[in-house]
Amino acid sequence: MHKNYQQVLALVFAVEEINQNPNLLPNVTLGYHLYNTYHSDERTLESSLKWLSGQSPTMPNYSCRIHNKSVAVIGGATSALSVQMGSLLELYKFPQITYGPFDPLLNDKVQFPSLYQMAPRDSFLSVGIVQLLFHFGWTWVGLISTNDMRGEKFLWNTAEEMSRRNICVAFIEKIPVSERRQDESHVPFMPRILASSAKVIIIHGDADSLMILRYSQPPILSPLKLWIITSDLDITLRAHHYESCLFHGALVFKHQISEAPGFSRFLKSVNPVKYPEDILLKTFWHSTFSCPDESAKLEERECSPNASLEDLPLAHFDMSMSALSYSTYNSVYAVAWALHEMFLMRIEMGFEGCGENFTLQPWQLHSFLRNIQFNNSAGEQVVLDAQRNPVAKYDIMNYLTFKQNELFVKVGQFIPKSLLDQNFTISENSISWGISQPTVPESVCNESCGSGFRKLSCEGKPACCFDCVQCPEEEISNQKDVDHCMKCPDAKYPNKERDNCLPKTVAFLTFKESLGLTLTSIALAFSLLTVLILVMFVKFQDTPIVKANNRTLSYTLLISLTLCFLCPMLFIGHPTSATCLLQQMVFGIVFTVAVSSILAKTITVVLAFKATRPGSKMKRWVQPRVFNFFVFICCMIQVALCGIWLATSPPFPGLDLHSEPGHIIIVCKIGSVIAFYSVLGYMGFLALGSFIVAFLARNLPHTFNEAKFITFSMLIFCSVWLSFIPAYQNPKGKAMMIVEIFCILASSAGLLGCIFLPKCYVILLRPERNTLEYLKQKANSRSHSEILTGRHI
User: Fold this and answer.
1) Are residues 182 and 232 in the same domain?
2) pLDDT at position 131, please?
3) Domain hosting residue 750, numbered range
4) What's residue 161's pLDDT?
């Protein structure tokens, strides 16, 4: 991993800078020992033991150095390496400053009292990543992290934050931290990841995790995923040359750092000639610049006379200071300032400052490291206290590859201050997506529900996996992926697509529309026919068939039927307070007059038959004024009921907003339901009485007996209005008025047809039957027939 050599150079740069600073550790020269851990647990322990014993092979608990002035250890690019070092160094109380990613586990002072973390805390990393997901609408996301406490905490925080934003976890892959050597990893991570339907993958781990992940991948991959990578991983470190295109377009959360002044200039000056004793630099130089033979290791001129680190590609070396190098730089300064404070304290107490006879014990440095606080050369404050350790700030970088060139482009940033105070910015136009994704990729479990549809959760599946169902008839949705449709305002209605509310038009049953015109024509035609029958009865008022069964009742019935046929005219047209009152009142009173007249005619038939018997006292009751008074009493009862209706809760004009989509129907509300059905019930009582009396008197031997015709008319009347009651409950708006109009016309036509058409037939077509001679002859024949029947019996 050639790029990691920058961490060594950051340490060298800091030591040289301190040694040249007359105000920091005067008369003291800092030195250092470098040990390579190879990112291996075994090599980490081996290097630690070598440093402690001073020779190889190592001898635990014994140092070959006579004057060992080492006071601190700076190391641990990963948490696993820091734990391996800390377990051994803690035995000797050596201060250990780790420059790797911040790990809450290492912050445990009971387990690691001598360990200090330099990196800033990643407390809000999950919040920033989820904000990025939410911004682009990625709701189906995979998570990859290391299988340790730090990885578990990241997974927990990220999953919890995703759940708050209704983002689902498609899968979770955990990378074993025990596999430090990448070529020994045989876990097939990549095939499982690529098989997932999630297009966006979040990778979190340390410097080793990505290498392990890459060695597990198949040799040929197409860049089908968008990767979101945390700052602890360097995707420019590759196991194979073809991997750069795989991560093209990735978004990386990098720690914001302020590069130390002069560091870039220092890197340009580094070469084996400047540091001839640095065997690591010679090895690095030979490997990165591909020197031709072994002799070139020692002689730069044979390798490349003008070679410089800035000529190397990004995969081999980065001229910009990395986060790990920045932490290393600050770690060296932290140790220097701790030593400086300790020497100042000794001078103030009257002890010798830093002479040769002074032996510094590593454990003495702890009290100064815990309280160290200073500003580095970049102007940023540095502390080692875990409680005061600052929260990390992030630049969102877009990783791009063009042939052999690689670069990072800043496309946004995330600066957390608190949970409620955050600064998240992203420039979509600056982002170059993957090769197969020219536009913003979609990462969802299924397609979004468009306008007019709502989400329906599927049992046993995550919340992000759902079906799309159309909104109900009276509801709309004008956004994507809504959980619930919303109702339109009362004055509006949904369109066919159910994604918008349109204003309703005011409507009512008018004379101009076809249905209103048809009903009006029928009503006028029947009322005209009734008037013609009335005129005909007046013209033939002296004939026997008109005189029969009370001529006055016939006139009253015909007049009331004429008004009954005209009642529907009150139901057609714009409803007003006056028309709403007249509709039900006129209907109830007029029909009561008609039905009570029929009841009186039926009773007339019965009483007339009984009055013909010798010695009968019924003759005094068979008088026209008696039945006229009977009709008047029946009508007054209905008038009283209507008066109570008007006094309590009269009908009034209202709006029907829901019966017909797209229309606001102006209708007459009946007001009191009890009063309405009381009026109907009273008419039904009179009609039922007429039907029963007429049915019983249908076979009475009387001239022009109307009982049979009244029986049929009342049967039609009762059938119509009995079927009206349930039919009236369901229809709304215009349909409700049409049902009532139909019942009025049908029942009125039944009364007119059954009672008066037979008489009209006799008057117009059989005038010979409408004479006294015919009636006497018919009566004599009936009497003779009765005598013969009696003899036979």
Assistant:
1) yes
2) 94
3) 514-792
4) 93
> Is residue 556 located within the same domain as residue 460?
no
- Note the pLDDT of residue 775: 61
CATH of the domain at 658: 1.20.1070.10
* Nearest Cα residue to 122 out of 105, 104, 143: 104
How do strand 492-494 and strand 96-98 relate by DSSP bridges? unpaired
Which of 503, 537, 572 corresponds to the end of one domain?
A: 503
| 306 falls within a domain | no
Let me know if residue 32 belongs to a domain: yes
| Same domain for 673 and 608 | yes
Distance between the two ends of the chain, CA-based, in angstroms?
134
Answer yes or no: is 444 within a domain.
no
For 103-113, how does the pLDDT look when each residue is reduced to its tens digit (9 = 90+)? 888 888 888 88
Locate 306 and state its tokens.
């003008």
* C-alpha closest to that of 741 among 530, 531, 584: 584
> How is residue 519 annotated by DSSP?
H
Residue pair 655/664 in contact (Cβ under 8 Å)? The answer is yes
CA atoms within 13 A on the CB side of 294: 0
- Shortest CA distance to 400 belongs to which of 615, 252, 536, 594? 252
Same domain, yes or no, for 645 and 727?
Answer: yes
d(CA 132, CA 426): 8
> Do residue 699 and residue 589 come from a single domain?
yes
Cis amide prior to 57 (ω within 30 degrees) = yes
Long-range contacts from 607-616, C-beta under 8 angstroms, 24+ separation = 608/549, 608/702, 609/697, 609/700, 609/701, 609/702, 612/702
Residue 631 identity: V
| Statement to judge: residues 459 and 376 lie in one domain | no
Q: So what's the pLDDT on residue 296?
A: 43
Tokens coding 764: 């117009």
Residue 85 has a CB neighbour count (10 Å cut-off) of 23
Q: Which residue has the tokens 């049908």?
A: 746
Q: State whether residue 579 is helix, strand or coil.
A: helix
Domain closes at, from 472, 503, 534? 503
Could you give phi then psi for residue 17, rounded to 5 degrees?
-65, -40
- Tell whether 15 and 107 lie within a shared domain: yes
| In a shared domain, residues 171 and 200 | yes
Which of 118, 71, 74, 31 lies closest to 365, judged by CA? 71
3 state DSSP class of 521: helix
Provide the domain count of the chain.
4
Residue 213 has what pLDDT? 66
Candidates 224, 204, 79; CA nearest to 129 is: 204
In a domain, 270, yes or no: no
The 3-class secondary structure across 414-442, one letter per residue, is EEECCCCCEEEEECHHHCCCCCCCCCCCC
Q: Is the pLDDT of residue 412 over 80?
A: yes
* pLDDT tops 70 at residue 330: yes
